[in-house]
From TrEMBL:
<protein>
    <submittedName>
        <fullName>Negative elongation factor complex member B</fullName>
    </submittedName>
</protein>
<dbReference type="GO" id="GO:0032021">
    <property type="term" value="C:NELF complex"/>
</dbReference>
<feature type="region of interest" description="Disordered">
    <location>
        <begin position="523"/>
        <end position="549"/>
    </location>
</feature>
<dbReference type="GO" id="GO:0034244">
    <property type="term" value="P:negative regulation of transcription elongation by RNA polymerase II"/>
</dbReference>
<dbReference type="Pfam" id="PF06209">
    <property type="entry name" value="COBRA1"/>
</dbReference>
<dbReference type="InterPro" id="IPR010405">
    <property type="entry name" value="COBRA1"/>
</dbReference>
Amino acid sequence: SSLSLPDQNGVLLPSLQSALPFLDLHGTPRLEFHQSVFDELREKLLERVSAIALEGKVEERYKKLEDLLEKSFSLVKMPSIQPVVMCVMKHLPKVPEKKLKLVMADKDLYKACAVEVKRQIWQDNQALFGDEVSPLLKQYILEKENILFSNEISVLNNFFSPSPKARRQGEVVQKLTQMIGKNVKLYDMVLQFLRTLFLRTRNVHYCTLRAELLMSLHDLEISEICTVDPCHKFTWCLDACIREKFVDNKRARELQGFLDGVKKGQEQVLGDLSMILCDPFAINTLALSTIRHLQDLVGQDTLPRESPDLLLLLRMLSLGQGAWDMIDSQVFKEPKMEVELITKFLPMLMSFVVDDHTFNVDQKLPSEEKGPIPYPSTIPEAFTKFLQDNRIACEIGLYYILHITKQRNKNAFLRLLPALVETFSDLAFSDIFLHLLTGNLTLLGDEFALEEFCTSLFDGFFLTACSRKDNVHRHVLRLLLHLHHKVAPAKLESLQKALEPTKQSGEAVKELYNQLSEKLELRKPSPAEVTETPSMELPLPTVPTPASR
């Protein structure tokens, strides 16, 4: 060829030849010029690829993209061309298997490709997808535990305060939603991971994530998934109840309709529904609604067995609490409700409500010779036994105790507290209950100055479990960090000794204990204030004068 080398490697455009000397006059290197032309062309090509993906008949546009991929794929490792290849793959609903395998085999390529391409890789590689999802699930559980053990203790701002919609904006839910896209296969895989982890760990936060993920896809109106998840409408209705922290009559009928509508041969859906109901946010809503119903029944002189709404709440609580057993045994039928829960336990709780009313009225009556009537201090043995043997009774009993604490009802609290030392599966020492209890106890702050109150609460309840349960140790220290200034000094000193970490204590306990010790150290009066000796007679430390240095 008669072309000189620069012409051979240049941009062969006749109209350009006469303009190039201008660049030379400005001292612009050819490389810089060629690079900018290249970048410009690449941008145009990327725009064109995105346009092709939207125009013409479906088969034709994908045929064009497949041809383009075939031509360009060999250059995929060139950094300058890679974005174009990735863009083509991103717009192909089905990238050829061979290309996907090559991308998967190369770490850098896999990292660089769009989530649309990764979804196609993941759906046939459960292990690889599991590796991507696993750190997110760990992060999710950690975030939940951090909230439960937060140093901020408050009634108004607790674990259950954020609305469902706000929770779904969390990083993990958003990332998982994006990874799944509209891919039903990936959604099913995530649900399978959640079921497996729930079975392995019994950690109920996985149930929360199950519901949050479905509702996050619902928010985005991804019907491809929502219409095939048989729990969708049930979860949607329950989500509205959780938002209101109450199950009203209209929604109760709806929820009951879903449960009654489970057809023969489809019982497996009960496993999924039970997991949705086992979400602590659902349990919280059902339990709060149950306590409210019981109070209404007292006012109406009605027995629990006569209230269909109450029976439905118990049915859902029972299904939620039975989730682990159902998924573990793979026997999909609703757990049997114990009759005595309805005929004995709930009326007993109602009698406690009546005791409070009676006592309050008594206090207001003019006292006669016999003196004021004392608050009932004993609890029926049956109450304690129910809390030990029956999971639903225990859950409702614990929520009743949270309710009276929130009402600042010290008498009722001290009366029922001894029943919490031994409960079904140690539920009274679970993180969610202790998180809520410590929050509500801040309302009884002034009672902490009283020896009797502290002895009942700490010696009679918390300290019975501290040595065997690290989490209880943590919650007590959280409470004291918040309320130490209210506790009588002598009691505080004995608590500080009793709460000293042991060799078995975890790092979190040691850290909290150190924080508490520092706070108490700052509170101690300085020796100068304590001693009666006139200050002049105290030996003065020798301070070197500036001259003697």
